[in-house]
Amino acid sequence: MSLFAAAFGFGLVSMSVIALAAVGFTMQFGITNMINLAYGEVMISSAYVAYYINRAGISIWIGMLAGAAFGAVFSFLLNRIVYAPFQRKGTSLLGMVIVSLAVSLMIANLLLPIVSYNSVSYHQSSGGLLRVGGIILTANQIVIIGVAVVVMLGIHGLLTYTRLGKAMRATAANPTLARNCGIPTKRVVDAVWLITGGLCGLAGVVAALNSDSFAIASGAGFLITALAAAVLGGAGQPYGAMIGAVIIGMVTELSAASFSPEYKDVVAFGILVLVMVLRPQGLLAKRGALAAAG
Amino acid sequence: MSTIQARNDLGRAAFSTLAILVLAACGGGSSSSGGGLGSGDLLVGVIAPFTGADAGLGPAYYSACLAAAPSINSNGGVGGRQVKCQQFDTRGEPADAVPAANQMVASHSNLMAAVGCTSDEAATVAPIIDRAHIPMFCMTGQTEFNKTPLKYFHRLVPADIFDAYAMVGSALYGPGHAPYKRAALVFGNDIGSQAFVEPATNAFTKLGGTIAINQPINLTASSFRTEVAAMLQTHPDVIFTEALGAAGTYLGEVKTLNGGKMIPFIGTSATIDPTWFQQVKGAIGVDDLVNNYAGVDLGYSFSGPAYTEFLTNLNAASSQFADAPKYKQRGSTLHLYDGIIMTALAMTAANSSDPKVYNAKIKEIANGVSGAQVVNTYKDGVAALKAGKSIRFVGAGGENNFDQYNNSVSGYIMVKYDAQGNEVKVAQLTPDQTKKISDAGGL
């Protein structure tokens, strides 16, 4: 088999996982102006929700839905109880980053006695191998790619064709003007936290399923990759995050095939640094938050 | 945030945050001086990773302390002083370990010993602990400690070089298979795991083997599919590995990409661990784990009065730490248990809580002097000392023989797991085989 063809196939899986996480993260930022560093911990919490459901003998695909629902509710409550009060008091962007970092640490440490430090795995057969022209994918990985494609199309449809999506874009562009135009921005923000939280939870379960084995420490890794893709694409840009996910997912796998695997993250983050030097606003940011949606 | 400029600023802020996160991810005093054992509680600092990729290590060491403390406390303590245990999390990163070590020695004047200090952080924390004159028992196999000038450093496990040689021995002379000739080296890219690579390569290649591929892997990565595909292309007939935290993911992908068939894999002594067992079992299934795994370990008997007391206390420690009983066959748990008991006995023998005084006694009690009475428990040791006798402590982990650098070395056995995760001895390297490997490896 060609290693590069195989790596390309694996890159498709990686970019799907990253895209699910990055799009939710960047929409959260783009619309609510919140760099939520607890995102990775919400992802791993959702992965554990799916794990416990799966351990009870229920299909992981049901667990995935439960994880998404948990992520949605958890994120919604996180905003309502923690973030929104700080934002109402006028806490600066950097201050909110610190608040979210504190929330991240709190979640991790509250989760530790519940789930312990042990790595766990879902009870789910990988479903056999599909080999096409050197690309090797399992049935689960094909489902992951399919889920990502459906979700990305769904996000596009939401932002382009629905009233809620248009309200989200208006809120992202200028919340005061949107409010004055009669858009219920508070409810829009609630909806954003529910939707992006759902994406976060879904991404957590998908990432854990993709990983064969995961532990509480995995949350930090999930966040860094999602954040990197979001920043690369342009902060607050869902379509940019998709492009960022494609670049980071592909580059990490192809560089692992080309160089020593220990350098794969170095190469991916090197590209990120290079892009940020040449184009600090990210790949798609010039059109404004969520503007690419139409 | 409606202008492009504002968006750029936010982008920069996000990028700065990312940079901080990436960097973060990479990312004393004794009690009293002079004679007398003093008063108040004594503390054993468990300085080890409790979070991060190597988070499975700290609990094994903490369990050792939880088992040792009641052995001492229920037998009068150290001159009446009760022993307590406290965790100091290094996150497995030297940068996090330094403040943890500084905090430990600066904030606790009642520190009697420090245990843990794995290869992840030993190079940075051992000098700090040594400067504070605190005896330490480190679970590092790094070569730099083979002839360490640190007087308070103690090591109850052999250097990694011996672990690596034992793995080579298992590949070449292990039972139930023809000698393996092509090995893939799959070790974490952390300091501790990489220490095995060079000695294993030297010994294996000089004895006729070939290194099919050497893969240092990022322990925090969420998948290794491309790495596994590259490894499979080299067609190894065995994998040498220590990739704590990532083993389940890597080996699970080996099974998937190899059409459901595992390649035999040989782990270091650190893979004799309940956390590792659970992780790999979850990823490849218990049958494939039992049938394809071989490990190397120091030759423990898991019996005798010292082990019995250790096991009793370890089980009782479940009220404080539910996972403690899992470590009943974890070599490092046994050794650190012994180290703490030896330190308490040394304090009693020296009648001093000043480590400058009792540190030297630790070696004396471990190795024994001529005519020393062998004791297996703290209670018996204190009784013998009170009777004016010299003692040699042979603990749950067996005999210790410290050299001039406080390194204690003993022989290896080849092991596997049973379906419940218990260690099962399958063979022992003969002296002749050991010599061949050592000569080839350049000991």
List the helices and strands and how they pair.
The complex is a heterodimer of chains A (294) and B (443).
Chain A: H1 3-32, H2 39-55, H3 60-88, H4 93-115, E1 129-132, E2 135-138, H5 139-161, H6 163-173, H7 175-180, H8 185-210, H9 218-233, H10 238-258, H11 264-278
Helix pairs in contact in A: 1-5, 1-8, 1-9, 1-10, 2-3, 2-4, 2-8, 2-9, 3-8, 5-6, 5-8, 6-8, 9-10, 9-11, 10-11
Chain B: H1 4-25, E1 42-48, H2 57-73, E2 83-89, H3 94-107, E3 111-116, H4 122-131, E4 136-138, E5 153-154, H5 160-173, E6 182-188, H6 191-194, H7 197-206, E7 210-217, H8 225-233, E8 238-242, H9 247-257, E9 265-267, H10 274-284, H11 286-292, E10 293-298, H12 305-316, H13 331-350, H14 355-367, E11 373-375, H15 378-386, E12 391-393, E13 412-417, E14 423-428, H16 431-441
Parallel strand pairs in B: 1-2, 1-3, 3-4, 4-5, 6-7, 6-8, 8-9, 9-10, 11-12
Antiparallel strand pairs in B: 10-13, 13-14
Helix pairs in contact in B: 2-12, 2-13, 3-4, 5-7, 5-16, 7-16, 8-9, 9-10, 10-11, 13-14, 13-15
Structure report:
- The complex is a heterodimer of chains A (294) and B (443).
- Chain A is 74% helix and 3% strand.
- Chain A has eleven helices and two strands; from the N terminus they run ααααββααααααα.
- A two-stranded antiparallel sheet of chain A has the order 1-2.
- In chain A, β1 (129-132) and β2 (135-138) form a beta hairpin.
- The longest helix of chain A is centred in the N-terminal third of the chain and has 30 residues, at 3-32.
- Chain A starts with a helix and ends in a 16-residue tail after the last helix.
- Helices cover 44% and strands 16% of the residues of chain B.
- Chain B is built from 16 helices and 14 strands.
- The longest helix of chain B is centred in the first third of the chain and has 22 residues, at 4-25.
- At the A-B interface, α1, α4, α9, α10 and α11 of A face α1, β7, α8, α9 and α10 of B.
